[in-house]
């Protein structure tokens, strides 16, 4: 599932590709991927200019000139491709937004969606989300105070979007490896030093993920050299050597989530 670095990469790249461009046509291949009728979606979106593209947690928000928004959540397996019709991937397209001869294809939206909402509805949608972990107000002190109120395992807490916005299954493993903390450790067993280390690991791993274009395998457009440059330290590397201590990485399950960690240097 795309997480904060992947969606931030999409936001940045799409801003240069379709920002301030007019949507010339819309095609809906899967009606369940949108939240209103096809006619209403088409009538309201066609001929609208995309004024801006922003990110909140794992969502992208395409703000249209009339003040309405398209809210995208890719969920599990969703991705996008931008290009001409003849260049599109040989995959089923759920939604297509056209910009003249070029198009933004939304692929793999079996669980994901592109909803047409007002700014007020967007605000309501985000009401329960936790803080943005890379924004200036999210200081180490704010993180410490937030963790003092929580119980349970640290892995489960990191991926709870109502606690922290944007971290998912993959990057939670990466963060905990970097902080040298076991994913099944209880929050109230972590001391001040460990929580401080964890905070800085969140900053380091997510910023590195953004700088390297996230881990998505599929390029956004032909010649895309940015997307997918991030290489995992532990996630999905069961049986491989830990790059820090050479111990074999193991896979476990925490709250029904596949979890990867080093049993030696994560304590």
UniProtKB/TrEMBL annotation:
Transmembrane segments: none annotated. GO terms for biological process: base-excision repair. Its EC number is 3.2.2.23, 4.2.99.18. One of its GO terms (molecular function) is zinc ion binding. It catalyses: Hydrolysis of DNA containing ring-opened 7-methylguanine residues, releasing 2,6-diamino-4-hydroxy-5-(N-methyl)formamidopyrimidine; 2'-deoxyribonucleotide-(2'-deoxyribose 5'-phosphate)-2'-deoxyribonucleotide-DNA = a 3'-end 2'-deoxyribonucleotide-(2,3-dehydro-2,3-deoxyribose 5'-phosphate)-DNA + a 5'-end 5'-phospho-2'-deoxyribonucleoside-DNA + H(+). Residues 2-106 form the Formamidopyrimidine-DNA glycosylase catalytic domain. Keywords: DNA damage, DNA repair, DNA-binding, Glycosidase, Hydrolase, Lyase, Metal-binding, Multifunctional enzyme, Zinc, Zinc-finger. SMART domains: Fapy_DNA_glyco, H2TH. Pfam families: Fapy_DNA_glyco, H2TH, zf-FPG_IleRS. Its cofactor is Zn(2+). Monomer. NCBIfam families: fpg, PRK01103.1. Belongs to the FPG family. This is Formamidopyrimidine-DNA glycosylase. It comes from Ureibacillus xyleni.
């Amino acid at each position: 599932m795309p997480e904060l670095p992947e969606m931030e990469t999409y936001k940045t790249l799409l801003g240069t590709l379709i920002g301030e461009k007019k949507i010339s046509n819309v095609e809906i291949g899967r009606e369940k991927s949108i939240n209103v009728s096809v006619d209403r979606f088409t009538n309201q979106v066609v001929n609208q200019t995309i004024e801006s593209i922003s990110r909140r947690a794992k969502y992208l928000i395409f703000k249209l000139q009339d003040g309405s928004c398209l809210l995208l959540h890719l969920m599990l397996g969703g991705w996008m491709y931008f290009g001409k019709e003849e260049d599109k991937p040989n995959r089923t397209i759920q939604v297509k937004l056209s910009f003249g001869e070029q198009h933004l294809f939304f692929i793999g939206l079996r669980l994901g969606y592109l909803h047409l909402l007002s700014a007020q509805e967007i605000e309501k949608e985000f009401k329960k989300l936790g803080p943005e972990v890379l924004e200036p107000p999210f200081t180490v002190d704010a993180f410490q105070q937030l963790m003092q109120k929580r119980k349970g395992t640290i892995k489960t807490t990191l991926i709870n979007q109502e606690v922290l916005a944007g971290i998912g299954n993959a990057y939670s493993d990466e963060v905990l490896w970097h902080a040298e903390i076991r994913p099944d450790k209880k929050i109230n067993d972590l001391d001040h030093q460990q929580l401080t280390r964890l905070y800085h690991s969140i900053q380091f791993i997510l910023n590195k993920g953004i700088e390297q274009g996230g881990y998505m395998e599929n390029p956004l457009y032909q010649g895309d050299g940015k997307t997918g440059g991030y290489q995992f330290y532990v996630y999905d590397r069961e049986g491989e050597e830990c790059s820090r201590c050479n111990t074999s990485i193991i896979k476990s399950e925490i709250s029904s989530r596949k979890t990867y960690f080093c049993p030696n240097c994560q304590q």
